[in-house]
Amino acid sequence: MSSALDRQIRPIYEALDTGSNKSAILACNKLLKKHPKNDLVKALKALALVRSQKVEESLVVCDEVLAAKPTDESTLAAMMHVLRGLGRHTDMVAMYEDAYRQQPTNEELGSQAFMANVRIGNWKAAQQIATKLHKQFRDDHYLYWSVMSAVLQANDPTTPPGIRPVLLKLALRLIASATTPSFYNADRFYLHLMILRDLEQYDDAYELLNNDIGKAICASSLVCDELRRDIWRRKGLVKEEGAHATNQITEAKDRNWLEFLAVLDATFAGSSDGSQDDVAGRIAETRTLFEQVADSDGRGDRSGRLALLELEKRAVAHGSAASRSTELLKEYFATFGDKLVCFEDLQPYVHLEGNLLADWTEFLTSQSSSFTSVAELNCYLNAQKLLRYNLSASEATAELEATRAVQYLQAYFDALKLGKELPDTELQPADDLALLSGQAFVSAWRASRDATCLYNAVAALEYASSRSKQSYKIRLLLIRIYRLLGAPSLALEHYRAINVKQIQNDTLAHLIMTRATLFSLSSVGDLTYSSEALESSQIYISNSQETAEYTVRAFAGEKYSQLPEFILFEERLDNSLQRDLTKIEHVRIRITHEPMNSDLVDMELIELKFIFDRLDLVHHDNRDFDVIPNYQPHSGPSFHEQTLLFDKQPGLGWLATYLRIYIKIFQSASDLDDDVEDKLLIGDRPKPSLDPDTKLPLKERLAQRKQEELDELTAEELSFLEYATALSDWLVPFHDYIRPPPAAVLAEAAKQTELKTGFPLKGYEPPKNGTATNGHAKKAEEPPALAETPEVVNKFFDDMSARFKEALDAGRLPPELLQLVTLTQEGFLVLALETQRFKPAAVIKQYRLGAMVQILKDIRTKAVAVLEEMSTALIKLAEDGATVDSRKAFVQACKPVWGASGLLDHDFVATISKKVTESRKQVLDGVGKGVVRVCKNHA
Amino acid sequence: MSVTRPFKATDLFKFNHINLDLWTETYGINFYLGYLSRWPDLCSVEESPNGRMMGYILGKAEGQNTEWHGHITALTVAPEYRRLSLARKMIDYLERVSDNTYRGFFVDLYVRCTNNVAIGMYEGLGYSVYRRVREYYGSLGLGRNAKDEEDAFDMRKPLSRDPMRRSVRPNGREISVSAHDVS
């Protein structure tokens, strides 16, 4: 490249770097006038276009460059970004492989071709390229690239099980051919061990590990040591590991819990003659060892004492009689009761019965309830948590729980003094008592279904939150309870306050996105949940753009131990259950406020089909429910289970059901068929699923129903499913009859593309004999006969109306009412989607749809009548719920938490009552008014 | 007492109870994978016997010549697992790897000048202030002690390769540099 041109290109890079895509495009155009054939400038232009969302225009330039088969590194690098932006990874591979083929001695191009395959998990091709690179350039790291690729190919789910050992043996042979042994570095060593383990050649692995070098590597590499433990275990070296661990504990003073577990495993490992005495002797030995550790460590480390508990538990399971468990528990509590972790430590060991339980309970009850230091408070907290943990079902009645809740709250106020001096960036030591109070109130609500228990809970927790602003735990409880109460704006406020970001969007979005359609006010123009759905889904875009790059870097840096994890990580995000649950909610929210044109229908259809195709392959439930504090008795449901909306957790079955519903509906409404879709699609299709079910025709897969999937739906959602399915099945012959032929759809799409970009649609050739018409060609066959209106379709709106009135009369909580209304509305929207093809007068006339249209009109009229009635009721309920009287009633209901002195302030509770009633009013009123608007939009 | 194990990419799905704490930042995917793809042996997790993450440490190796050192980028322990010496355990491990595997001269870390608890702990572990770095941190947005809150102490501890303790100095608190001057 001439230096003059080089000088002119530099500003383009700068513009791209700073995000000034517009000026980059301008600069490119200017340069292209002088150098119309310059691939680099074209590639940079394509990049700037992609980044300005001008996909179609970018495609044209991009394809021009690809056709020129570039080999210049800068052009390739720019094109890599373009193709990644377009999701065309397969083309990226082809581009690099082409370049490498043209310049087979160019090492850099070879590496790039390898990396391009790595990015898309093309392990077979990657392995071949790496082998070639190694032959040519004789560097060992290429050999290891090829070894790793073979291993990854062996682990790939698409590899037939029979091929797996072949690939692993190949990998092993390759390692043996290396000029330097694998212990040259820890990650090569790790890779070597991993192959031996997977081939079950434990003796060979043992040999590698059991020498000075192997030991040295394991001493400073956690990944290798983890693998070593695994291999030892598989080889049955429990005794050896136990001896090694004993040594680590006594000599090196190692307090890694894994060492203690190794000693325990060895203690109970089957002996050759299987005699009981032998085991009893070993138990005694181990006990002595742990007691020594416990005595010498004192309060310094918990291992010894906890190991004694575990030993006792295993000994009892093994048949030992005399139980010292309560004694050990008391000792543990006496030593570590002032550490918050004590409760978690002891949980596995307190499943006691009879006298032992009574003894333990008495011990805990006798703990002092006055505290003058945080240590004493923690002791009290641990005692309370442990007592609560062992409550039986009969001890968890509504009255008893409500009483406990107030007691916890009293203790909370007492304990607040201990954190008076702390800055507000710190957590209050008293926090957990407020959590206990909130949980007990919720438990009382579960037992009585009396919503006032929940009012008390939010009053207490809101106060605690105001005193400990950084406590995310208090906020998590509030989020769950506010959703139950139908005060979603308050739930959202707390969700925002915990500052969920990046990867946490995947694991925590369930807190507010689960059944978000219930609370969405998009029908009246409030797009909060819609944008929340989009924002929380950003992480999946980052994942697909960034993660593979680090897989490449791990290869480049030879960090083989990380590769399987990186690949799993990318996969878990890519096929995240929450991702697709959010997607469904977003679709449901979209249809309430957007016009039902092809932008919505076609695009969503394609996306939902993608999800459906990979559905059975693997979905990963990354949702974090463990983060929600749980201090409920272990005899009953957890706090998370207690506060699930409608007692149901949407999961894979719920997702599958909703996908089926909407794919069917959108298929009816759309003109796309598979051929057209292929032509219009940009980027790669997702990898096909391996599940045999997905080989079935789509139609059959859409018709499938599995009981365990339906079990995830509420009764109301089931009704909606029946209705939507019947409606769709009923009308499908008409859609199929009237839908314009694919050629016509394609011609129209090509026309639109050309209008938009000035270029013809890629890969599209207009038919030569001119058969394409305006899409309403006269059909040869007769129109299908109209079947009788399915009973479920006829009855759906009346049924929902009746159920709504019932729920209203029974004074159910807002979410139940909202569910009935939003599902009825959804039924109406689905009807609109299903019938818009039959709307134009010309269509009615041409296909003689008069009779059918009349029937549809009747259904719509009924739907509107029902919805209007619901709307009026909701709006009235909204008004009634936010009056001075209703607020007073709220405050009155909260008397347990403010009535006595030393508890909450009356005014504080009054403020909460205002917030809660207002939030409820907002959602009831909004949904109520939205319903009318939706009806009007689709009149 | 805890299980010491490598930090894994999939731990990002499990660290909410640690990262929701005010003092722990949650970064983009590129941050964590960047560390793991270069210095996986300087990243470890402490796990409770029942499998919950209690805390983690992320580190790197950087610097030229005698400035070649291990660096503690992130160190965090969930509130309920504090005061169990976990931080000490993780730092010990990182120091060992920095010393044995990377042969660094010292280990260093940055801490907010207002974080007295942490500073005290690091001093107890043998670290001393090497310099003050102005405006190293973003504000917490809490509107107090703004200057101290945004400034960082760069604290160092020499390793076996620096027996003369050339990488530390006694008057570090008085020496102040701008954030642009440090890596």
Automatic annotation (TrEMBL), chain A:
Residues 758-785 are annotated as: Disordered. Gene3D superfamilies: 1.25.40.1040. Pfam families: NatB_MDM20. GO terms for cellular component: NatB complex. InterPro entries: NAA25_NatB_aux_su, TPR-like_helical_dom_sf. PANTHER family: N-ALPHA-ACETYLTRANSFERASE 25, NATB AUXILIARY SUBUNIT, N-TERMINAL ACETYLTRANSFERASE-RELATED. Belongs to the MDM20/NAA25 family. This is Actin cytoskeleton organization protein.
TrEMBL record, chain B:
One of its GO terms (cellular component) is NatB complex. Residues 153-183 are annotated as: Disordered. It comes from the Eukaryota. One of its GO terms (molecular function) is protein-N-terminal amino-acid acetyltransferase activity. Residues 2-160 form the N-acetyltransferase domain. Transmembrane segments: none annotated. Keywords: Acyltransferase, Transferase. Residues 153-165 have a biased composition (Basic and acidic residues). This is N-acetyltransferase. It comes from Daedalea quercina L-15889.
